[in-house]
């Protein structure tokens, strides 16, 4: 796997921990970021994984940045590309050829609350349930076919901090379990959406 991450890297760490515990039969071959100081890069380097950051400011356009980023990703020839807290929109030119092997974890029950500050969005909407989703990446913002979800209750007195912490705790196993299914080649992207063992999913897997 190649992992794309912009910040803290706790989802990357969950993957690394599962790999080192022997519960995920996969490997991270490179970590890539749009932020030079992203803690995710240090997490990778700490276990000897190559980590690269490119600064969008050094490129004349989003497409030029995306192209350079994926030139770097291609050098490690990943089977899967995992967006784990990667916070920049990716353009169609880099996404379309890779959709079937690129996933993203998003902190909401998609299609609810796309975009940023999802916990704040959920609280403002008065939602009683929130959660996280893993989906194949398309050029539509948080819009690709959803593979798996985990619901999390919104509790009285919740604020953004408490709700995001409760969701994050469930994101980690959700991502690891979904990557496990992909690594086992049980999940794939068909013409009409997500396939599990070659059959269309009726709805997202509840993991
Ligand atoms: C996670 O909550 C992830 O779902 C979210 O950013 C956080 C990254 O945390 N991703 C998005 O909002 C993408 N739209 P991490 O860096 O500790 O894994």
Structural class: alpha/beta
User: What distance lies between the first and last C-alpha atoms, to the nearest angstrom?
Assistant: 21 Å
- Provide the succession of SSEs: EHEHEHEHEHEEHEEEE
Number of strands: 11
Count of domain modules: 1
Bound small molecules, by name, code or SMILES, are: glycinamide ribonucleotide
Strand arrangement in the largest pleated sheet = 3-2-1-4-5-6-7-11
Label the CATH architecture: 3-Layer(aba) Sandwich
Number of distinct helices: 6
> What about the largest sheet?
8 strands, mixed
Question: How large is the share of residues in beta strands?
Answer: 15-25%
Mean pLDDT: 97
- The name of the CATH superfamily reads Formyl transferase, N-terminal domain
- The poorly predicted ranges are none
Describe the structure.
Pathway: Purine metabolism; IMP biosynthesis via de novo pathway; N(2)-formyl-N(1)-(5-phospho-D-ribosyl)glycinamide from N(1)-(5-phospho-D-ribosyl)glycinamide (10-formyl THF route): step 1/1. By secondary structure, the chain is an alpha/beta fold. The protein has one domain (2-206): Formyl transferase, N-terminal domain (Rossmann fold), CATH 3.40.50. The chain is built from six helices and eleven strands. The protein has helices at 10-20, 39-46, 62-75, 92-95, 118-124, 160-183; strands at 2-4, 30-33, 51-53, 81-83, 102-106, 129-136, 146-153, 187-190, 193-196, 199-200, 205-206. The strands form two sheets. An eight-stranded mixed sheet has the order 3-2-1-4-5-6-7-11, with helices on both faces. A three-stranded antiparallel sheet has the order 8-9-10. A hairpin with a 2-residue loop joins strand 8 and strand 9 (193-196). Helix 1 packs across helix 6 (160-183). The chain is globular and about 45 Å long. The mean pLDDT is 97. Glycinamide ribonucleotide (GAR) is lined by residues 5, 7-11, 84-85, 87, 105-107, 168, 171.
